[in-house]
Amino acid sequence: MADELELLRRANPVPSDARLPQNARQRMAALDRNGDGSVSEDEYEDSIRDTFRALDADRNNRVSPDELASAGAPQQDGMLSPADRIRRIDMDTDGELTEEELERGAEQAFELLDTSDDDTLDLGELMSGGG
């Protein structure tokens, strides 16, 4: 599986600065743009838009499973595959994500993670959401 991921990365390279955070602390560092220790909805949405643009390596305004795989860590047991992650929020079921689909999925995720209902996410909330 690791060799397959390396082949995907070479065939469809996503810039190294677009690599996806691998845990809640890395996500907090990436999302908390003003450094106040919490992530506002605006910070979250801005980050999602930037992530989409970075992941779209072939610039076709869609993120494919290969592009998502090339930006992530090798898949481990119990983790959803890139295709499965896309399938969860792929509204038109074409196997790829548009920016709108990714934004809608992110909005849903933000709502689920914001257990304090204060319209911000803290590290604890990010950790509880699969950190």
Radius of gyration: 15 Å
Query: How many distinct beta strands?
Result: 2
Helix content: 40-55%
Q: Work out the strand percent.
A: under 5%
The biggest beta sheet is recorded as:
2 strands, antiparallel
Low-confidence stretches: none
What sequence of helices (H) and strands (E) makes up the elements?
Answer: HHEHHHHEH
- Cα separation of the termini: 23 Å
Number of helices: 7
Principal-axes shape call: globular
Please give the oligomerization state of what you see: single chain
Q: What is the SS-derived class?
A: mainly alpha
What do the pLDDT scores average to?
85
How are strands sequenced across the largest beta sheet? 1-2
Account of the 3D structure:
The chain is mainly alpha-helical and 131 residues long. It is 53% helix and 3% strand. It has a two-stranded antiparallel sheet. The chain is globular and about 35 Å long. The model has no long low-confidence stretch (mean pLDDT 85).
